[in-house]
Design brief:
- By secondary structure, the chain is mainly β.
- Among the domains are: 263 residues, Methylamine Dehydrogenase, Chain H (7 Propeller), CATH 2.130.10; 81 residues, Immunoglobulins (Immunoglobulin-like, Sandwich).
- The protein contains four helices and 38 strands.
- The strands form nine sheets. Strands 1, 12, 13, 14, 15 and 16 form a six-stranded mixed sheet that branches. A five-stranded antiparallel sheet has the order 4-29-28-27-26, with no helix packed on it. A five-stranded mixed sheet has the order 21-25-24-23-22, with no helix packed on it.
- A hairpin with a 5-residue loop joins strand 10 and strand 11.
- The longest helix has 10 residues.
- It is elongated.
């Protein structure tokens, strides 16, 4: 390993020269195409978001000519609700190509807008399989890695939020219960900040997280400055209850600069490793993915020793045809002899992104391909993305900075396809079980209906058990009786009733007809007063 000075320069904002490798790729691939590929990459969206929209880059299947593009409203549609005007999530289109299974029932997205003029909000989003909103929480901080996990035997929601620096993050990992109340905030140890790339809860009551550390180093052996700055990748294990740092693996010890496919810059930060996932293996050790070395590493959890490298320049495994990956993301252990990898692909060869299921033959030390899952559009995700093996054997793929998520049958048949608007994407996408029980009451608005009576709007952000709404009305807030009922049709249900109230309330019922929530009374309003 190259000698280096571990004087910390943590959390500094790197200079423009740190972006050199991406610019080289863009120069190779061509400005317009590269803009489409790289749009939304942390550290690059500010430069390429609106430019790609107004320029010649292709985004989500639409081509825009400079100065002649459609309005942003048409490009990035926004959902709006009478009962929750404070929520402006992007509209999501979901297509079910075959009769889709109903379980897992929900899709989890951490939505970001990389177009500065976008009207929709970024935040945490849960959808049903029809693309209808179930829960949305806007976040001013950048949201990443939103999913459902288990902590102490109970289902929880987890995500990262914070600020972006170049292509990593400084922030915190959050854990919320089924009422959507935050219960734990997980921070990195040893003076570092929790990074956006991964947040995995374990059965030990701990969290596996990533962190970045900037240190001064001699980069001359890699073609850089003798007094350069390098980004070290850390995989940490944190005790959730106490915040104690239990384990800290540093890439600068075992992984040399020469293993990187990223050229060293003459100035700025050298992100030679770029850790982007950490996972448990069945034997209790750790599986770590590093984008810029094109490699996955198995690390001894007890002592941090490197057990093997897969892919990259120094692979300990023979890679059979179809198993090599490039700039990969999200390596997961799915059994004692199988892993999944999201292969982002390679711009210069137009290799499309794909979800890979790989088999590990430990006797022959060979990796073979079980299946590669590709989208029919053949696009390349410039960053991010994930592969999830569902309980029924289906494969769920989040396409990173491409604004898609997809579900495949085990044989590769496309079962479901979801699409966010141009200008939005989700870091990872998950299909999972969830039962949300918000403590706040349902929201209701009653508007006078010009033909007579009223139209009552009902919603309950995050409530997953609502099957039907019953409308109550009366002359006084304390004297309300049923005047109508209707099945839930989405996040917000509108119900026309033959009543002038003037007071209205709504009752949420589950599939068994049991009341599970009730709003307070509201007074009838004019539709022109909103």
């Amino acid at each position: 390993m190259e000698a280096m000075d571990h004087k910390s320069a943590r959390n500094e904002v790197p200079g423009r020269a740190a972006q050199m490798s991406r610019r080289r790729l863009m120069g190779i691939a061509g400005g317009g195409a590269a803009a489409a590929v790289l749009a939304g990459v942390p550290g690059y969206e500010q430069a390429w978001g609106t430019a790609a929209l107004a320029g010649t880059g292709r985004l989500a299947g639409q081509v825009f000519a400079a100065g002649a593009g459609p309005s942003l409203a048409a490009v990035a549609p926004v959902q709006a609700f009478v009962t929750r005007p404070d929520l402006r999530p992007p509209a999501v289109t979901v297509t079910n190509y075959v009769t889709s299974p109903s379980s897992p029932p929900y899709v989890f997205l951490s939505v970001r807008n990389y177009l500065a003029a976008a009207q929709s909000q970024g935040g945490l989003m849960i959808l049903d399989r029809l693309g209808r909103l179930v829960w949305f929480m806007p976040l001013a901080a950048a949201p990443f890695n939103f999913s459902a996990q288990s902590y102490q035997g109970r289902p929880v929601l987890t995500w990262w939020q914070g600020s972006l620096l170049y292509d990593y993050g400084t922030g915190t990992d959050e854990i919320a219960d089924n009422t959507y109340a935050t219960r734990h905030t997980v921070k990195a140890g040893d003076g570092l900040a929790a990074d956006l790339h991964d947040f995995v809860l374990t059965s030990r009551g701990t969290a596996l997280i990533t962190a970045y550390q900037l240190v001064t180093a001699n980069l001359s052996s890699a073609g850089g400055s003798a007094k350069g700055t390098v980004a070290a990748g850390h995989a940490q294990e944190i005790d959730i209850a106490t915040g104690k740092l239990l384990f800290d693996w540093d890439s600068l010890g075992p992984i040399a600069y020469s293993e990187s496919y990223l050229p060293a810059p003459t100035s700025g930060v050298y992100d030679y490793f770029h850790i982007n996932s950490v996972d448990e293996t069945p034997d209790g050790n750790l599986l770590i993915s590093a984008r810029n070395t094109w490699a996955v590493y198995k690390v001894d959890r007890a002592n941090g020793k490197l057990l093997w490298r897969m892919n990259g320049k120094q692979s300990d495994w023979k890679m059979a045809p179809g198993t090599s990956f490039y700039w990969q993301h999200d390596a997961r252990s799915i059994g004692p002899r199988s892993i999944s990898v999201f292969d982002d692909g390679y711009v210069t060869t137009d290799k499309p992104s794909q979800g890979l299921l790989l088999q590990l033959n430990t006797k022959a030390q060979q990796v073979t391909l079980s299946h590669a899952y590709r989208h029919s559009a053949g696009f390349i995700a410039g960053s991010q993305g994930n592969v999830q093996v569902l309980p029924n054997g289906h494969i769920f793929v989040g396409w990173g900075n491409q604004n898609y998520f997809s579900e495949f049958a085990a044989n590769g048949e496309l079962v479901l396809d979801g699409q966010l608007p141009v200008g939005c994407h989700s870091y990872r996408a998950f299909c999972q079980e969830w039962s949300g029980q918000p403590t706040s009451p349902p929201d209701v608005v009653a508007l006078a209906n010009p033909p007579g009576g009223a139209v009552v709007y009902a919603s309950w952000n995050g409530a997953t058990a609502v099957a039907r709404w019953t409308v109550l009305a009366g002359s006084l807030p304390s004297k309300l009786s049923q005047v109508g009922s209707q099945a839930r049709t989405g996040f917000e249900t509108s119900i026309a009733v033959d009543s002038d109230g003037p007071y209205f309330s709504i009752v949420a019922e589950n599939a068994a007809g049991k009341a599970i929530g009730r709003s307070g009374p509201v007074k009838l309003a004019s539709p022109f007063s909103l």
